[in-house]
Task: inverse folding
C-alpha cells in the first residue's frame, strides 16, 4: 500500500469506520495509526486476558494489526471495526495457544458491569494510587484464573463493553451462550474476590510484633515511674 495524505479539512477523530477502512485500503498510514490508537487499549486487554502474559499479548496484538492492515479491504461494515479487529486479535491469540499446546502436548481449554478496572487520576494521593494499583492487580489475577470461555466473554462484555450480539459474533457462539457465560464469569469473580476479602479481614487492625512490644514496654516503663 502507498502512503496517501488524508483529505484536507477533515478532522481525523470524526472519521467513521467505513471512511477509515477506505483510507487504509488507499494506503493512508495516518488513518491506520488512528485506528490503532482508537483500539489499542481494549484490544491489548483482550489479548492479555486470552494469553495471560504481557509480552505475548503485545506480540499478538502487533501481529493482529499487521494482518488487519493487509486484509482490511475485506471489511464490509457488517460489524464495527472494533468488533472486526477483536476477531483478528482472538484468532491470533487462539493460534498461539494451539501452537503452545502442541509444543507442550497440552490441550488448551477453548470451548450490567459490576467490576470495572480502576484507573488512577493524576491528582490522586500516592497512597490512593497504590491502593488502586493493588486492587487492579488483584482483579487481573482472579480474571486470569477463570476458564478461558468465561474470561473472554467477560473481557468483551464488561471491559470492552461490546453488546451481547457483538460478543457472540466475535466468538462465534449464540447470544444466549454469551449471557450464560457472562453471568457465570461475574459469579466466579465475585466468589473469588469475596474469599480474598474474608482472608484480608482476619488481619484488619493487626496489632502484633513491634506494635505489641511498644505498648508493653511503654506501660512497664510508666509503671516503674
Result:
Amino acid at each position: 500500500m502507498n502512503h496517501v495524505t488524508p483529505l484536507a479539512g477533515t478532522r481525523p477523530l470524526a472519521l467513521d469506520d467505513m471512511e477509515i477502512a477506505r483510507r487504509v485500503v488507499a494506503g493512508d498510514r495516518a488513518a491506520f495509526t488512528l485506528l490503532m490508537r482508537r483500539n489499542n487499549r481494549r484490544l491489548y486487554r483482550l489479548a492479555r486476558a486470552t494469553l495471560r502474559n504481557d509480552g505475548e499479548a503485545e506480540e499478538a496484538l502487533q501481529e493482529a494489526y499487521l494482518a488487519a492492515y493487509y486484509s482490511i479491504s475485506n471489511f464490509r461494515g457488517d460489524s464495527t471495526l472494533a468488533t472486526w479487529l477483536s476477531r483478528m486479535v482472538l484468532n491470533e491469540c487462539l493460534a498461539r495457544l494451539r501452537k503452545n499446546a502442541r509444543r507442550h502436548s497440552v490441550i488448551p481449554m477453548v470451548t450490567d458491569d459490576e467490576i470495572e478496572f480502576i484507573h488512577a487520576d493524576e491528582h490522586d494521593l500516592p497512597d490512593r494510587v497504590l491502593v488502586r494499583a493493588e486492587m487492579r492487580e488483584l482483579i487481573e489475577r482472579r480474571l486470569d484464573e477463570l476458564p478461558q470461555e468465561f474470561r473472554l466473554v467477560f473481557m468483551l462484555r464488561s471491559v470492552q463493553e461490546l453488546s451481547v450480539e457483538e460478543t457472540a459474533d466475535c466468538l462465534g457462539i449464540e447470544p444466549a451462550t454469551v449471557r450464560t457465560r457472562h453471568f457465570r464469569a461475574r459469579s466466579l469473580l465475585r466468589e473469588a474476590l469475596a474469599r480474598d476479602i474474608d482472608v484480608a479481614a482476619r488481619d484488619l487492625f493487626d496489632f502484633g510484633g513491634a506494635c505489641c512490644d511498644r505498648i508493653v514496654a511503654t506501660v512497664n516503663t510508666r509503671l516503674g515511674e
